[in-house]
């Protein structure tokens, strides 16, 4: 895919312009977006991604159009999973609702910066070291297994990672918010506010997210232009999506499992691609007996082991559809049997919940609950009281 410099420049200018509009116009004042505002923004960003993908298909061919859509869907799904961590960070650090939009905006800008760095590093590594595909594939398979194991063990995230703990221990903080300010003067001394701690937490989480997402999309396309644009479009509108379906995300109880299947598939795809690429060294001392056997085996597969993009796109869409439908069915069953999903979407038993919440739930179902009970949510990660 030969992308001229002027195409890169035009694309970058347009995307930066859209982000600047979101930052300086839409997000100029801290507030909680209404459902209408968030819905319109998400629809616009998704529509822009679809239009861009159609444009890639028309001007570059269906192969690259398919690679963009596969990469965008994968990155968008991973970004939705990342919203779970954002929800937990916001809840654990008690971010006021009207300040969450600002925090998310900064977190998404940091994500774009970190992913841009990883994209550039990945492109250079792929160009110089073909063996990097083995590392990417191994990392994705490890991540897929970890997602599945963490789900089965109901492992909980706290949002209090090593960087946050280090900041708490070694930097002067005041445990209160001063609007969107990162610092404040207390008793004549300049200290960091709670908002600064939120930014540190979101930024460190963004780095971990980039470690997952960049190898995943390089398993679908090796075109830096498509990798960059798919990541940008996947992050656009994530802030509004947080407010639009933040409460519904915990109903996607099988999202982590679906993502583990997708990441494992891409990891295997990367291994097959790496074996296919190693064919250029066949018959040379670079390739040992084991690698030679693997290469000879891959050559016997259809298309010499290269998984076509149409198959990748089919698998990704199929897994996401199955995951969504199964999650909604399971969520309905949970509601019917008095179970509530936790912040990750996994269900917790009634016995694990607060007895007062269980009592209030039964009273509401029977129509005997008090007005206050009726207004009180059972288990909401956005409840920052």
TrEMBL record:
The organism of origin for this protein: Naumannella cuiyingiana
Bilayer disposition of the protein: Multi-pass membrane protein
Biased composition (Basic and acidic residues): 340-366, 373-385
Any single Gene Ontology cellular-component annotation: membrane
Main location: membrane
Protein name (record): Tellurite resistance protein TerC
Start and end residues of each stretch annotated as Disordered: 340-385
Compartments, as annotated in UniProt: Membrane
Keyword Transmembrane helix found: yes
